[in-house]
Fold these 2 entries.
Entry 1:
Amino acid sequence: MRNLVEAINAVMMDELKEIMGNDFELLITTYLADSEKKIREIKTAFESKNFESLKVISHSLKGSSLNLGVIKLADTASQLEIQASVAPIENIQGLINLLEIEFDHAKKAIAHFV
């Protein structure tokens, strides 16, 4: 497995765990469920060629991921947000595929904190 630091900011995750206490697990569970939903919505927006919706959802995923220190997923969501305006469809599909991979890596990395 990749180094955890590549997928998430471990220091930030530890700080959140300390601050949130018993609510940390709920925060993580909510984030993971919401992120899965957003990724499905991104795929649906892409399939229906609704690039404005794709940008908005990508922006939201980027923000929630940054708030938790899920760096690589946030970076990929940011790239997708930008590319939805300018990139050929093939580039967007590749980023969506990468988004799913990064989400998988993030789930595995986060599991070490719960």
Entry 2:
Amino acid sequence: MKYFADSTRQKYSTCGSRHKKEELIEWAQWNKPVLLRHNIFATGTTGGLMENELEMRIIKFQSDPLGGDQQIESHIAEGKIDF
């Protein structure tokens, strides 16, 4: 697991494939102190899991089959999400 540090408030997005959601949650738990200092965006299912497991606010888009990945991509292209 990698731990990242960033001192400025950023807007990060996450997407978890069916087979990697558990690893994403584990990574997010490890990095929760850092994630709390940022705005986190996710597709619907992944965001719901993260909210429940981390007990923090996640800004959720539609689930992937309903276009959530495309919503995140458009926000990145428009500069509304940093990474």
